[in-house]
Structure formats: structure tokens, C-alpha cells
Amino acid sequence: MRTIGLLVRRELRSYFDTAWGWTILAMVLILDGLMFNAFALGTRERYSAEVLSDFFYLSSGTTMIAGVLLTMRLIAEERQTGTFTLLQTAPIRPVEIVLGKFLGAFTFLSIVTLLTAYMPALIFVHGKVSIGQILVGYTGLLSLGAATIAVGTFSSALAKNQLLAAVIGAGLLVLLLLGWLVGQVTEPPLSGVFSYSAIFDRHFQPFMKGRLNTEGLVYYASLCFGFLLMATRVLQLRRLR
Amino acid sequence: MIEVQSLSRYYGSRCAVDRVSFSIAANEVVGFLGLNGAGKTSTLKVLGGLLLPSGGEVTVDGVDMSSNPTDVRAHIGFLPEDPPLYTEMTVREFLHFVAGLRGMSTAEIDARIGEVLAKTNLEDVSDRVIAELSHGYRKRVGIAQAIIHGPKLVILDEPISGLDPVQIVEMRAVIRSLRTESTVLVSSHILSEISQTCDRILVLNQGRLVAQGTETELAGRFHIGGSIDMKLRGDRDQIHSLLSAAPKVKKVIDLRTEDEAVDVRVSMESDAREVLVKLLVDADIGVRGVTDAHDELEGIFLDLTRLEGES
């Protein structure tokens, strides 16, 4: 656990000490703010709950993009610069490396995500929404973010360089996003499988509307577990290559 | 300390290390010598835990590397050719981080860090960001991270590559000082470097261990009695006739003659330096210095690789 803590602190520091982390933080806040003003608030009168739901809908996109950008460098960059040797020659297991990297990126993404809370707070003050809807929405957003980070960690473990890691990560997320579409054009039982595998449609929408979706939480936890397990396996296999 | 038995390493179908076996005693400084592509780095990567062997056995202090890789890595310090450094950290922060990774407690780190900074001559730059340091300092930070946890085995891959002459001399001293607490394995393709820093030499060629021993043992095996460089003062012709007629001398070559200063290289069937010095002194020739000829190892190495290529 101590080693994982060390790696988390090191990852967090690498985001806050470099322009890359601050750029992603600024990008998320600016995009979320602009889209909140332009699309969620809009120009016509709307129910506060609808505005809040739209906020979470729009934020899910920036969260996924930020997840890919944050994770592309996690392992691929260290391999490129040679610093990954430090981790490989230390008496730590691949699973600890993967968990440390994952938790570091997820903690940073959580900080970025929670900094957007001033927008739901504005709706809460000037409109009529429950704290519960806000908390459930953020639970969904952080779960989606965690799954994105897990996919990105796996891509970064797999790729030789950061650019390739971003491409693989984005490609996998697009596949997971399009699951609902494939589900609509296939017959059961395949349609059910594709529909369930979709990262956004079936699993995230209930969170947007304030419904705590246990199935969604299990799905996102499963994605995290699966992709982190694969990332660990990739690191183990690299010693054989 | 280290036992390597029939170690092999393949990359796909290409064999980089071919059934290499050797053992190294505690606190020995051993050099891995070979041309580029001889299999030195692959062997060191397996010993450092970066790669798994395709075959064979490696034990460090009695612990088998394949079955207990994490335990074995706790006792090894590894410096690759390009030091793995987080350049945004200061030297002290970096060593703190690496020591933590290697399982040391904060109290242990605090007690150890000053000692390591002193050993690697990094005290003056300990609070500077690594990105600002020269290549020589970065190499030393690389060594510091490899020894911070007091490993039983320190592996240094081409530690002097890219260093200037002053830095090379400093690095040699640092490497030699490591033997007090660790066994040291150094790889290099620079022959004189291995000769000057190591107790024993392992010669690799095309993935195979073609010879091992001290420089003298290797020289004996290849029937090379030894060559010495002599700095003398006196008449050149008299020096030549004296040395050429001396027992065990095979050949005398002029290196430099300037006024009465005469530098010669003497090839011998076996070590006869005391006899030669006495002979010269009795003839009133000034003996200013006698050193081993630096191309001795080179000759051995070329013989070894040529024989291996022919077989």
C-alpha cells in the first residue's frame, strides 16, 4: 500500500508540476463552463432538474476526453524516457504499478471534475434541485471517469508511445460508446450484450437524472477491474519479450 | 553471491544470450566485456530483473530469481546506460522517492541519504533540480539511486559512456568505492575501463561467454607474457641494446625519443620487470616509470573474438 501511495503522489505531482496537467484542468473547466452556458442554461425557461441533467450529459464528454489525455502518458511516456526501468527494477509487483498509476490519474481527474461543482451549485441556489441529484450525478461522472482512466491505463501499457496510447484509448472508448447503436441493429441475445456493453447510454443516463444506478456502478467497476487486470498482464508479459 | 547457470535469452527466434554460466563472489568488481551486440545488456537486464530468462537459472545470495523475482530485486541496484531520472525532481527528492519504492522507511532514508550523497560526490547539488545537471552528475545520480537501498549486487551498464576524461576518473573512484558494501557488475565495450576498474573480466561474444578471469590469467591463457611501457632517461641505442639482450624480452619498440627522454614498450615472454629495472639502473639509465601497456587487454580481446569467429 505504501508503494501505491508513493506512486499516486508522484503522478499527482507530475500533473501539477507540468503544463500538461494544468492545460487539461483549464480545458475541462473552460469547455464545461461554455457548454453549460450555451446549451444547458440555454435561452428559454427550463426546469432546474433538466438543466442539471444536461450539465452532467455535457460533462461526461469532457471527462472522457480528459481521461484519455491524462492517461496517454502514464506508462508509455515513462517507457519512452526510460524511467519505467526504475519501477521495473524495484521490488514492486506490476499490479502495484498499475494501481498507483490508475489512482494517481483518477485522483487528478476527480479534482478537475469536482472543480466544476460551482455550476450545479448555481442551479441549486437559483433553481430547485435536490442535493441528492447533484451527488448522484457526480457519482456517475466519477464512475465514468474511473472507467475511462482504466481503459487509458491499459492503452498506455500497451502502446510504445503516448500518441499511440491516446489513439488506442480513444478507439476503445468509441467502441464502448457505440455499443448501444450496434445493440439497436442486432437481434437478441446479441442486442442485449451490445446494449449492456455501452459505456454511456444505458449506464450513465440514470445518473444524469438523479437515479442511483447500481447496475451502472457494477458495470463501471467491472470495466475498471477488467482493464486494470489486462494492463497488469501486459506489464508481466513485457518481461518475457 | 551470484550463480548463473546456462542462462539463455531469446528475442523471438534470435538468440541474444546463449547458455552463459558464471559465478561472482561477494564484494568482487567484475567487468562484462564485449563488442556492441555481444549480449552484455541483455544479460544485465535479466540479472536486474527487467527481463525474464528464456532458459537457465539465476540465483542471488541463494534466492532463485525465477521463483522469487520481487525478493531478488530488493537486493539489486541497477543503472542502465541512460540513467532513469525524474528530471523535474531535485536530487534529494528523487533519491527519497526511489528509496521509498525500494521499501525503506522514512527514518532509514534519512539516515542513508547523506551517506549516499557523499559516496557519489553529490552533496553540492543535492538540492538542485536534476534537469539542470550535467551528464556526469546525472550518471552519478543514477549510481546513487542504484545504491540507495544498500543492495548486495550493483549492476552498472556502460557507466562511463558519454563522460569527459575528468568525469571518467571520478566515476572510476565511485565504482571502486562501491565494493565495500556490494558486489559490482560493470559492463563496457571500452577495454581499458574494464581493465582499470574490475578484479575479474567476463568476455562475451555473440551471446556466449568466451573467457573469464583476471587480466593476467587471460594473458597467461593466450601465452602473452605481458607488455610494459617504460619511461627512461639515457642514450637510446644503449637502452635498446640492453633491453633487447635481456632474458625473457621478446621485442622493444620505440614510443617516443626526445633528447635523453626515451619511452619504450617492452614485450616479454613472462613478467621480468624487476630484472629489467635492475639491469637499467646498474647501467646508470634513469628509470622514471614502469606501467602496464594499455593495449594488453585489447590484444587478448581481439584474439578471443577472432578465435570465436573462426570456430
Q: What structural keywords apply?
A:
heterodimer, A: mainly alpha, B: alpha/beta, Rossmann fold, Alpha-Beta Plaits, 2 domains, 4-stranded antiparallel β-sheet
Write a concise synopsis of the structure shown.
The complex is a heterodimer of chains A (241) and B (311). Chain A has 241 residues and is an all-alpha fold.
Structural summary, described in words:
The complex is a heterodimer of chains A (241) and B (311). With 241 residues, chain A is mostly helical. Chain A has one domain. Helices cover 81% and strands 0% of the residues of chain A. Chain A has 13 helices and no strands. Chain A has helices at 2-16, 19-41, 48-71, 76-81, 84-89, 94-114, 118-126, 131-158, 162-177, 179-185, 190-197, 201-208, 214-238. The radius of gyration of chain A is 19 Å and the shape is globular. With 311 residues, chain B is an alpha/beta fold. Chain B has helices at residues 40-47, 69-73, 91-101, 106-119, 135-147, 165-177, 191-197, 215-221, 236-245, 273-282, 296-310, and strands at 2-11, 14-24, 29-33, 55-60, 63-64, 76-79, 153-157, 183-188, 200-205, 208-213, 227-233, 249-258, 261-268, 286-292. A six-stranded mixed sheet of chain B has the order 6-7-8-3-9-10, with helices on both faces. Chain B has a four-stranded antiparallel sheet with strand order 2-1-4-5. Chain B has a four-stranded antiparallel sheet with strand order 12-13-11-14, with helices on one face. Chain B is globular and about 70 Å long. At the A-B interface, helix 1 and helix 5 of A face helix 2 and helix 3 of B.
Give a topology summary.
The complex is a heterodimer of chains A (241) and B (311).
Chain A: H1 2-16, H2 19-41, H3 48-71, H4 76-81, H5 84-89, H6 94-114, H7 118-126, H8 131-158, H9 162-177, H10 179-185, H11 190-197, H12 201-208, H13 214-238
Chain B: E1 2-11, E2 14-24, E3 29-33, H1 40-47, E4 55-60, E5 63-64, H2 69-73, E6 76-79, H3 91-101, H4 106-119, H5 135-147, E7 153-157, H6 165-177, E8 183-188, H7 191-197, E9 200-205, E10 208-213, H8 215-221, E11 227-233, H9 236-245, E12 249-258, E13 261-268, H10 273-282, E14 286-292, H11 296-310
Parallel strand pairs in B: 3-8, 3-9, 6-7, 7-8
Antiparallel strand pairs in B: 1-2, 1-4, 4-5, 9-10, 11-13, 11-14, 12-13
Helix pairs in contact in B: 3-4
